[in-house]
Write a structure and sequence with these properties.
The chain is mainly alpha-helical. Among the domains are: about 70 residues, Serine Threonine Protein Phosphatase 5, Tetratricopeptide repeat (Alpha Horseshoe), CATH 1.25.40; about 70 residues, Serine Threonine Protein Phosphatase 5, Tetratricopeptide repeat. The protein is built from 10 helices and 8 strands. The strands form 4 sheets. The protein has a two-stranded antiparallel sheet. Helix 4 packs parallel to helix 6. This is Tetratricopeptide TPR_2 repeat protein. Keywords: Plasmid, Repeat, Signal, TPR repeat. It holds the Pfam family TPR_1.
Length: about 220
C-alpha cells in the first residue's frame, strides 16, 4: 500500500472576451451589471498548467493505476470538450475515492462548461475542503458564483485565489469583472490593469489585449 499522488494536467478557465462593448455606462448605473446583459461575450479558454493534487487515501497499485488512468482521460476529455465524459470519469473515481481532489476540480470545470454552475460550486466546495490552499479551487468557485450573479461571494473567492497566488492573472481579470458587476469602477480598472501586466509577462498577448480593450471601455 502506498499513498497515492497524482500528477494532473489541470485545465484552468482563462479569459477570452470577444468584441468588448461599453461597460463604462453600466458602471455608472445604480443596478449591478449583469453579465448576461452586457454585450460582452465571455468565453472560457482551456489552458493546462500542471499541479499535484493529493488524495487522502491509500491504495494498492491496481486501484492507484486505475484512478490515475481515469484522471488522465478526464483531463483529455475536458480539453477536447467532451464534458459529459469528464463527469462520467470523475464519478467513477469518486466511487473509489470520495476525497479525490483532482476529480472534484475536473468535474467542477466540466459543470462550468455545461453552464451547471451550482453543481460546479458544490464540487469546488469539496475541493477546498480537501485542499484549502489551492488557488485553482477558489478561482473555479468564484467563476461559478459570477455566473450565478453572486458577485460578493465571487469577489471573496477571487480575493482568496489572489492571496494564495499573487501572480494569478486570470483571477485579477475575473475579479475585475466581479468588481464591475458590483459597481466598483476603480476596483475593476485596477484589476484589469494588473491582469494586463501579468498577461504581458506571461506572453499571453491576446489575453493582454482583451484586458486592455475592456480598460478602454471603462476608463
Amino acid at each position: 500500500m502506498k499513498k497515492f499522488t497524482i500528477a494532473l494536467g489541470m485545465a484552468v478557465l482563462g479569459a477570452i472576451i470577444s468584441s468588448p462593448k461599453v461597460l463604462a455606462e453600466k458602471l455608472n448605473q445604480p443596478e449591478p451589471i449583469l453579465i448576461a446583459q452586457t454585450q460582452t461575450q465571455l468565453k472560457p479558454q482551456l489552458q493546462p498548467p500542471s499541479i499535484n493534487p493529493q488524495s487522502t487515501h491509500t491504495y494498492n497499485s491496481g486501484n492507484s493505476n486505475n484512478i490515475e488512468t481515469l484522471l488522465n482521460q478526464a483531463t483529455e476529455y475536458l480539453q477536447k470538450g467532451n464534458y459529459d465524459q469528464v463527469i462520467e470519469n470523475c464519478n467513477q473515481i469518486l466511487q473509489q475515492d470520495k476525497d479525490n481532489y483532482g476529480a472534484y476540480i475536473l468535474r467542477g470545470l466540466a459543470y462550468i462548461q455545461l453552464e451547471k454552475y451550482q453543481p460546479a460550486v458544490d464540487d469546488f466546495n469539496q475541493a477546498i475542503r480537501i485542499e484549502p490552499n489551492s488557488h485553482y479551487s477558489y478561482f473555479g468557485r468564484g467563476y461559478a458564483y459570477l455566473y450565478l450573479k453572486d458577485y460578493e461571494q465571487s469577489l471573496a473567492d477571487f480575493n482568496q485565489a489572489i492571496k494564495l497566488d499573487s501572480d494569478f492573472a486570470h483571477a485579477y481579470f475575473w475579479r475585475g469583472i466581479a468588481q464591475g458587476n458590483l459597481g466598483n469602477k476603480q476596483g475593476a480598472v485596477a484589476d484589469l490593469k494588473q491582469a494586463a501586466e501579468l498577461y504581458k509577462r506571461e506572453g499571453k498577448t491576446e489575453n493582454m489585449k482583451t484586458a486592455l480593450d475592456l480598460l478602454k471601455q471603462i476608463s
